[in-house]
Every structure is written in structure tokens, then in C-alpha cells.
Design brief:
The protein is α/β, with parallel strands linked by helices and about 280 residues long. It is built from eleven helices and twelve strands. It has helices at about 65-70, 95-100, 110-115, 120-130, 140-150, 155-160, 170-185, 200-215, 230-235, 250-255, 260-270; strands spanning about 1-5, 10-15, 20-30, 40-50, 55, 80-85, 85-90, 105, 190, 220-225, 235-240, 245-250. Helix 4 packs parallel to helix 7, helix 5 (about 140-150) packs across helix 7 (about 170-185) and helix 7 (about 170-185) packs parallel to helix 8. The two termini are about 35 Å apart.
Length: about 280
């Protein structure tokens, strides 16, 4: 349930009334064959809606990043069906995949591996404009768009031009990824551990930028994270993933304050409390 302010009163909005943007039915991913096969994602169902903030929470190896790659179309689905805007997703050709990527983008955990180190920042941003059909725009308009995108994430384009990504700090590179998203304004953003490699101050800034982006362009944001505290802070809906399956789904309040699955309870108990003795027995 999302919260809105109306006539100075807090109103709880029913997310089920919003249009579906990405839905899955028994989505499965299997790696390998025979005795050596691994079921990374096992018949999961999901329904992500317009302007919804979702968190998929699980430990390393739970299958959450594999699911994110399937949603992005980076790896194939072994079984099950993915629906995009209530139609079966079709990414069977390069042209169709490029069209799909206009509507869904990602911010990755490691900014140092997310960019082509041999391409200057100008080229990276111009590629985003070209993907959105702006290749023939006048240079002045492209400059305006790139400057606005960098300004949105508190960077100055004039200080970035002719530089390579590796010349920036980790926090600057992470913000540059968000600037790319700002240029493309996709309907869906998958954020895979977007704050895990930056300091606490930069973390809060990046989260605020992503939420502002959601509000400005009506974006659906899907966080892939092991941080259940982050999920509680930012999410409308939380999916708890264990060994390739969703073991619990619900609102952030229900999942965190009234967990039902034992795995969820363990994830919550593993969060260190400053004023309590740390319990390492579950580690």
C-alpha cells in the first residue's frame, strides 16, 4: 500500500488498482543438465505495478540477481512466462530487445564494471540519447539534455566531458548511472544493490535521487537487495526469496513487523541492533 497526502490526511492507496507493468507466471531458470543442473529460480510468480517500489530480498545465492537478469532480458527464461504491460514479452530479435530496453533499465551494484572503460562519458550519455531516438537531435539540444541529466544527480557535465568513467569516484560513477536513467526515463528500473559500494552519505543521496525519479516520471523501481532494512525503508511491496523461491510476499510493514516465514524472521534477526548484544548463532 502506498501512502498519499490528501487534505492534510494520510491516505492509503490500493496498489492493486494500478496497471501491471511487469508480471511473471511460474518463471524458472535452470543452469546445466542432468545431475549437474542447478535450479536458480524456481517457478516464481510476481506482479509489479505502475509507480510501485518493490524489493526482492534474499541472501547471496538466493536467485534474486538471476531473476533480475531474466527481467532485463540478459539471460533466457527456462520455463514460465513474463508479461510486459499485460502482453507476453517478445524479445526474440535484436530490434525487439532494443525496444524493450527503452522501457526497462538497470542500475548495477558495481559501477566500475557497468561502463565501457574505453568510452568517454560523452559517448556513454550520447548512446542513451540515441537509444531513445534522439540521434539526429541538434548538438545544442543533446548538450542541454546531458547537462540536465548530470545536474539531476549533482554532477556538472562540463567537468565530466572528455573524461573516462575510471577517472571518477565510485559515488560519482553510481550517480552517473542514475543520470543515464534520467536521460532514458524508462517505465521500469531494476536497481541491483545500488548503494552497496558507496559510503553512508552517498547511499542516502542515491536513494533520494531514485525516489525522486520515481515521483517525476512515474517509474516502477525494483530493488534487488540483501538489506531488509533498506527494503523496509523504501518499499511498497517486499518479496522474500530463498533458494530460488518466494517464501513470503506482502507490504513492507506486514513483512517486517509481522513476518510469517522462518527465513524472513532469520533475516530480520540477523540485522545488528546497536543497543543489543549481537547474536551470531544464526550466522
Amino acid at each position: 500500500m502506498s501512502e498519499l497526502v490528501k487534505n492534510n490526511e494520510l491516505v492509503r492507496e490500493d496498489l492493486s488498482k494500478r496497471p501491471s507493468v511487469l508480471r511473471g507466471d511460474k518463471v524458472t531458470k535452470v543452469f546445466g543438465y542432468g545431475n549437474s543442473k542447478t535450479i536458480a529460480v524456481n517457478q516464481v510468480d510476481f506482479n509489479f505495478r505502475e509507480r510501485e517500489v518493490v524489493s526482492i530480498v534474499g541472501e547471496s545465492g538466493s536467485g534474486k540477481t538471476t531473476l533480475a537478469k531474466m527481467l532485463l532480458g540478459l539471460i533466457g527464461v527456462t520455463d514460465g512466462v513474463v508479461y510486459y504491460k499485460d502482453a507476453v514479452r517478445d524479445i526474440t530479435s535484436h530490434k525487439k530487445k532494443k525496444e524493450y530496453w527503452r522501457g526497462i533499465q538497470a542500475v548495477f551494484q558495481d559501477p566500475f564494471s557497468a561502463f565501457n572503460i574505453f568510452s568517454k562519458i560523452d559517448s556513454l550519455l550520447l548512446d542513451c540519447i540515441a537509444l531513445m531516438g534522439g540521434k539526429k537531435l541538434p548538438p545544442e539540444k543533446k548538450y542541454e539534455m546531458m547537462s540536465e541529466a548530470c545536474s539531476f544527480v549533482n554532477l556538472k557535465y562540463d567537468e565530466l566531458t572528455n573524461k573516462y568513467p575510471f577517472e571518477l569516484s565510485g559515488g560519482q560513477m553510481q550517480r552517473l548511472m542514475i543520470a543515464r536513467v534520467f536521460l532514458m526515463t524508462p517505465k521500469i528500473l531494476i536497481a541491483d544493490e545500488p548503494t552497496s559500494m558507496v559510503d553512508a552519505c552517498s547511499r542516502a543521496t542515491i536513494l533520494d535521487m531514485l525516489m525522486k525519479l520515481r515521483d517525476e516520471v512515474g517509474m516502477t523501481i525494483i530493488f534487488i537487495t540483501h538489506d531488509i532494512g533498506l527494503a523496509y525503508y523504501v518499499s511498497d511491496t517486499v518479496y522474500i526469496m530463498e533458494r530460488g523461491k518466494f517464501v513470503e510476499v506482502g507490504t513492507a510493514e506486514d513483512i517486517i513487523l509481522n513476518p510469517q516465514a522462518e527465513y524472513t524472521k532469520r533475516l530480520i534477526s540477523d540485522v545488528p541492533k546497536i543497543h543489543e548484544e549481537w547474536d551470531l548463532s544464526t550466522v
